[in-house]
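User: Could you write out the 3D structure of this protein bound to magnesium ion? I've included everything you need below.
Assistant: Certainly. Input first, then the structure.
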Amino acid sequence: MIAIRTQEEIGKLRASAAILTAAFEAVRAILDVGVSTAMLDKVAEKTILEQGGIPAFKGYNGFPATICASVNQQVVHGIPGDRELRAGEIISIDIGVKYQGYYSDAAMTYPVGAISPDVRDLLDTTAAALHKGIQKCRAGNRLSDISHAVQTKAEKNGYSVVRDLVGHGIGTALHEPPQIPNYGAPGQGPTLREGMVFAIEPMVNMGGHEIVFLEDGWTVESEDGSLSAHFEHTVVVTGGKPEILTIAIENHRD
Ligand code: MG
């Protein structure tokens, strides 16, 4: 069953997403060459707690931090630590917030200093693929219309979408039904209805789609070592234009 949220619940999801946005702004403000991923984690946690939220990832199945910080060939679920960012790298930041029982979840891949045009294209394409998927979040469409739109955009530019990890429903739990793959034929799966809330999150590799899990039990990398980007929004299905609850994190995209 996919939950249908009331207007009151969507109000709480908006409030959760506002705290999440503040956390992204705090991270973006200090993200630079020489900054450790642990420092990014620290400012995100401080911001969320100050605003009355709860870091949703910390303690989730034992994950030790507020943010996932995944550098270069790391796809998702990187654990923050002492490693300092270097010019020309990319870093995917994924953050989740719980507020008054309601969850929001978003991710963005940032350049560190100047990046090459081909890396810039990977980032832009992944963000564009996410938005192609979001555009399908309208009542009456089918779930896999989202998947197909994401895949089509990513592959058109010569990249691969990760297949072993998926987006998800979100609301009173961080991960709810349905699973939302980033690939597949259109016109399949449940019919979308107003009030469904999804976290859509393409992970796009410059090389092949295969991934490997590191021995830390969390970090996921591209198997071929190619760069990987990850963009995610929490989105409400409506009868018309979808409501992207976390859109404001893009005000600080670069
Ligand atoms: Mg997610």
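The longest strand covers residues 90-99.
User: Perfect, thank you.
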